[in-house]
Amino acid sequence: MESTPLTPSSSVPTPGATPPGTISNTGSEAENQSKLKHLTVDFLEPRTLLGILRRFIGVADIASVRFSLPSQLLEPVPNLEYWNYLDRPETFASIGESDDELERFLGVLRFWFTKDLKFVKGKPCKPYNSTLGEFFRVLQLECPGDTATGPVRVSFLTEQTSHHPPVSAFYIDCPEKGVSANGYDQISAKFTGTSIRVTPGVHNLGIFINLHKRGNESYRLTHPAVNLGGFLRGTLNLYVEDICYVTCHKTKLKAVLQYLGDSWIGKAKHKVEGVIYQYTQEDDGIQKIKDVPSKLVRAKIEGSWMSQLHYTVLGSNEKHLLIDLDPLFPEPKTCPPPDAMLPNESRKMWEGVTEAIHARDYSRATQLKSEIEERQREKAAARAAEGVEWKPRFFEAPALAAGRPRLSADGEKALKGLHTGDYKLEPAAVTGA
Questions:
Q1: For the segment 401-417, what is each residue's pLDDT rounded down to a tens digit?
Q2: Which residue of 26, 225, 232, 309 pairs with 199 in a disulfide if CB–CB is 3.0 to 4.6 A?
């Protein structure tokens, strides 16, 4: 997913680094990647990118291929910072406030529709690729309202736990409200000929929310597939046409959300509709709205995931506003001060690249980016030669099958420090780049 507009490359690769616009072998799917590894790119116009992407036809997962781009085509933001779910932290903090189970479920949906507000208010873009062991932390996101102990804060910690395939673990915490969430982020992408279809990777089982003050009431939110199109027009856009699910095993409430596709003719409406119903068994087999028995329905959802959404409850035709996205924008994120950041902390690691891009010194930005990427390759080769297996620092060895990462002792300390203002961490003994 590249940012627009596409401009001519002025990059100067460093010796031994992957030249911008080339595909390097990741060690998996070697046959598919070998035909691409010598590809060079001249980004002269948007349609050029479409020509590049057509060479990916037949590659099962282009998200697992290292595709090095000129720096002027990158959004100057680290990947781990970009892929977070706290664009509106107050919707996360307020999930467990109501004593009514249906209202709490609706609170989960408010968080769901605001977690990626950056895609509603902005355009898709390509951030920096994460390096192994890189981490990002938000020290506080103050939400409206006070508690007896002070302002409500939500903290976020994420770490790149695997590079092949690219997987990161995350943990969100709001102690004042007793709400936490965790999960693995991984995407799979395939070029279809006119668009890129992005689906959750095999290790991405969704977002898992826990309400500690509600008897550990938990929710699982699965991700829909997304299509990235607009290459011919030169303006990239996201289109969602899929079904996803929100499930609470304790209350036996489940939502089926169906994102409806738009016609090629006319303005996109980005419609979504759904039902919340009371299920009677763990695996009820229901995958579509039309299969939900009407007697089980508790509420219905309808609207635009880019504008306003409403709900109606059982026994009433009155529409209630679920969330109005029109006046909302992503909240700025506050990180530890620069002198408290470690070298492998996202903003610190990519600081030179970001400064060069903002200064439009794309040659230097690409050179610095290539140095980071080459350093990562060298360290990976050294570990392979020595038979050393990489271990994450802030999360336990990946429990990928469960989909719910566990914080390590260092992870718990880092998260606690975000809430107490103690941002000091000892440098890692081993880094991935």
A1: 689 999 999 999 999 99
A2: 225
Q: Which of 43, 71, 38 is nearest to 55 (CA)?
A: 38
Q: What DSSP state is assigned to residue 304?
A: E
Reduced to 3 states (helix: H, G, I; strand: E, B; else coil), residue 228 is: strand
Which one-letter DSSP state was computed for residue 232? T
Please report the DSSP string for 172-190 in residue order: EEETTTTEEEEEEE-EEEE
- Per the CB < 8 A criterion, the answer to whether 251 and 101 are in contact is yes
- Tell me phi and psi for residue 37, to 5 degrees: -70, -15
Q: Give pLDDT tens digits for 326-349.
A: 999 999 888 999 999 999 999 999
Please report, for the chain, the start and end positions of each structural domain, with discontinuous segments joined by +.
Answer: 46-231
Task: Determine what percent of the chain falls in helix, strand and coil, rounding each to the nearest 5.
Answer: 25, 25, 45
**Beta strands 271-278 and 297-304, pairing class:** antiparallel
- The pTM for the full model equals 0.85
Four-point Cα dihedral 229, 234, 237, 242, nearest 10: -10
Phi and psi, residue 116, nearest 5°? -120, 45
Are the CB atoms for 432 and 132 separated by under 8 Å? Answer: yes
Backbone angles phi, psi at 156, to 5 degrees: -140, 130
